[in-house]
Amino acid sequence: MGGLGPSGLSAGQIAMEIEFRCPRCSAVGHATWELGGPLACPHCEHVLTAGVPAPTSAKLERCPVCNGYEFYRQRDFNRRLGVALVILGVILAWPTRGLSLLAVALVDLALYALLPRITICYRCEAIFRGLPAGAGGGDFDLSTADKYRRIRAEEEADAIESRQREDRP
Q1: HEC sequence for the chain
Q2: Which pLDDT tens digit goes with each residue over 95-148?
Q3: pLDDT digit string, tens, across residues 57-93
Q4: Are 63 and 69 in contact (CB under 8 A)?
Q5: Residue 85: which of 101, 74, 96 has the closest Cα?
Q6: Contact (CB, 8 A) for 40 and 57
Q7: What is the number of alpha carbons within 13 Å of residue 97 lying toward its C-beta?
């Protein structure tokens, strides 16, 4: 049985949306997941929670996709749209005498205040939406992200090498 978490809910009462890449079929899936419960790929129906221990609290301790244990939180905002807004502000800076940069900064501040936070697994980059504040992850850490980027690159290289060995007669 899970204890009460930071939101006053037990582990089994926290349901969230999760966006993830299935390790079996590589399809990107979206599913509603209850903390500590089973998670299945909506495409191939592969159950992903086999190695995840039952939570002892209402906190995200392990990723149901990769069994990772390090997470970070950020605002739920499309990065491409953010970059496009900055580029537009820079392009319009000369004709607007810099007012476009001020407008972009104000839009950014408003979005930061209004948008909800999401939790992201460093290892598999699964995105968790709807997790209560304080229930998983801290601020982004570049060294941790680099560590997992190297791990993913090594795993991909190993998978390619393994497939090439299987294809040889």
Answers
A1: CCCECCCCCEHHHCEEEEEEECCCCCCEEEEEEECCCCCECCCCCCECCCCCCCCCCCCCCCCCCCCCCCEEEEECCCHHHHHHHHHHHHHCCCCCCCHHHHHHHHHHHHHHHHCCEEEEECCCCCEEECCCCCCCCECCCHHHHHHHHHHHHHHHHHHHHHHHHHHCC
A2: 999 999 999 999 999 998 999 999 999 999 999 998 887 777 889 999 999 999
A3: 678 888 889 889 999 999 999 889 999 999 999 999 9
A4: yes
A5: 101
A6: no
A7: 0
Residues in a beta bridge with 18: 31, 128
Strand partners, 21: 28
